[in-house]
């Protein structure tokens, strides 16, 4: 089993989804979560929000996604 891909404090972005209405980021990784359902997960927080989001590693990326036209 590999380690987490993103470290605490890393700036990440949510992967684009045409069905999502939430901000794609940037978010900060604020907690590394256990390996479950076949992948690592994280708690991330957008600076303007007062709560964390729990996301799987496959839902975030290190670079800002390209704009969708």
Low-confidence stretches: none
What proportion of the residues is helical, as a percent range?
under 10%
The count of domains is 1
SSE ordering: EEEEE
The beta-strand count equals 5
Oligomer: single chain
Strand content bin: 35-45%
Let me know the largest β-sheet. Answer: 5 strands, antiparallel
Distance between the termini: 38 Å
Detailed description of the structure:
The chain is mostly beta strands and 69 residues long. It has one domain (11-61). Helices cover 0% and strands 39% of the residues. Strands 4-3-2-1-5 form a 5-stranded antiparallel beta sheet, with no helix packed on it. Strand 2 (27-36) and strand 3 (39-45) form a beta hairpin. The radius of gyration is 12 Å and the shape is globular.
SSE layout and pairings?
Layout: E1 11-14, E2 27-36, E3 39-45, E4 53-56, E5 60-61
Antiparallel strand pairs: 1-2, 1-5, 2-3, 3-4
């Amino acid at each position: 089993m590999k380690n987490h891909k993103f470290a605490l404090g890393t700036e990440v972005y949510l992967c684009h989804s045409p069905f999502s209405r939430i901000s794609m980021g940037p978010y900060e990784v604020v907690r590394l979560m256990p390996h479950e359902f076949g992948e690592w997960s994280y708690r991330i927080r957008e600076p303007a929000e007062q709560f964390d989001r729990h996301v799987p590693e496959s839902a975030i990326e290190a670079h800002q996604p390209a704009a969708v036209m």
